[in-house]
Specification:
Distance between the termini: 16 Å
Order of helices and strands: EHEHEHEHEHEEEEHEHHEE
Helix content: 40-55%
CATH superfamily of the largest domain: Response regulator
CATH architecture of the largest domain: 3-Layer(aba) Sandwich
Strand order of the largest sheet: 2-1-3-4-5
Number of strands: 12
Structural class: alpha/beta
Number of domains: 2
Radius of gyration: 21 Å
CATH topology of the largest domain: Rossmann fold
């Protein structure tokens, strides 16, 4: 899967140059010109790494990163003209993974980006992505926009079964037999209740579980 990189830089010439270099390396690039646009696009896109200037109109890089860190551990490289040690310390304390001072070499930026992505890939080899949703079956972890959501065992099993049969409508009866077991004596309304709870926990990815009228549910990104 092509890695998606989010570049946030208010200087147009630098932003365009970074975008060109990264595209040449085979990455998909999203850009934003200031902190406000960065937050807006962050909400709409799942990215693998962020390259972000600190001094920008509106929200600065520190503020944008603080916002992102509330829900994600996505790697972030800060770009800045500030050279003081205190500024670098603040960047790392805010949650940055790397720090480059301007002017910098585009080749070095690309190399640092590749190194961080390689390190991240080694951690996430067991992750399978489905839009904004990611599942690590080995750890039985589910993430939405890289933030882990807490599911019960039954909710996890429902989600995993729907995902493994994505695009295929699954009846309530089939879910009952598969998840609750053949010995279950209740009615199929428990499925609707469980799906409702699951959707709520999935947040921005709740729409991936679609209702199939007169039958049941299906998973579709």
């Amino acid at each position: 899967m092509m890695k998606k990189i989010f570049v946030v830089e208010d200087e147009e010439n630098i932003r365009n140059l970074i975008e060109a270099y990264l595209k040449k390396e085979g990455y998909f690039v999203i850009t934003a010109k200031d902190g406000d646009e960065a937050i807006e696009k962050w909400e709409e896109n799942l990215v693998d790494i962020i390259i972000m200037d600190i001094m920008m109109p509106g929200y600065d890089g520190y503020e944008v990163l603080e916002y992102i860190r509330q829900e994600s551990k996505v790697p972030v490289i800060f770009l800045t003209a500030k050279r003081e040690l205190e500024d670098r310390i603040r960047g790392f304390e805010t949650g940055a993974d790397d720090y480059l001072t301007k002017p910098f070499s585009m080749k070095e930026l690309v190399m640092r980006t590749k190194a961080i992505l390689k390190r991240t890939n080694s951690i996430d080899d067991n992750l399978k992505d489905y839009g904004d949703l990611a599942i690590n079956e080995e750890k039985k972890e589910v993430m939405v926009k890289e933030s882990i959501i807490e599911l019960s065992q039954r909710e996890y099993e429902i989600l995993l079964y729907l995902v493994k049969n994505q695009h295929i409508p699954i009846s309530r009866e089939r879910l009952l037999d598969r998840i609750w077991g053949l010995d279950f004596e209740g009615d199929d309304r428990v499925v609707d209740t469980a799906i409702k709870r699951l959707r709520k926990k999935m947040g921005k990815a709740e729409g991936y579980i679609k209702t199939v009228r007169g039958l049941g549910y299906k998973f579709e990104v």
